[in-house]
Amino acid sequence: MTNEQKMKIAAMRDDGYSYVDIANEIGVSEGTVKSYCRRNGLMRKRTNAEKQDIRHCLFCGKEVIQNPGRKEKKFCSDTCRSKYWNKHLAEVNRKSMRTYECAYCHKPFKAYESAGRKYCCHECYIEDRFGGEYR
User: Fold this and answer.
1) In this structure, are residues 85 and 58 in contact, taking their beta carbons and an 8 Å threshold?
2) Which backbone phi and psi does 128 adopt, to 5 degrees?
3) Please, what sign has the CA dihedral across residues 94, 99, 103, 106?
């Protein structure tokens, strides 16, 4: 890249042009423009509205990059996510337990609400379904 192209990149970034517009104007790839801007501190400054929209990792505090149109990210990585939830077990949203009656022995048993279980154990299932003979 020539010095003239470098000066033009700097001037166009100051005027608010995007990487694509600059690349098309001076005849180099978008990646070349982007890496030159990063190396030389020519990144776009954030507006106040964008600064307010920045989210930080709940565990380590690093800035979390959000993807528009997607669910909000709360953690910068899977490691931070698992460490956070391991330290905050009381905040984990667990499914509620419900009491059911076994279809075979009629004893009450507990299972997660959405499990849809009929039997308290495997033995009751075998007895009811196969008459105790399995195999």
Assistant:
1) no
2) -70, -40
3) positive
Q: How many C-beta neighbours within 10 Å does residue 103 have?
A: 14
pTM of the model: 0.37
Q: Which residue has the higher pLDDT, 54 or 57?
A: 57
> What values do phi and psi take at 97, rounded to 5?
-85, 150
pLDDT at 68: 76
Question: Which position has the token pair 């166009």?
Answer: 12
pLDDT above 70: residue 73: yes
Contact call for residues 97 and 112 (beta carbons, < 8 A)? yes
78 HSE (CA, 13 A, CB side): 0
Q: Do strands 97-101 and 108-112 pair parallel, antiparallel, or not at all (unpaired)? A: antiparallel
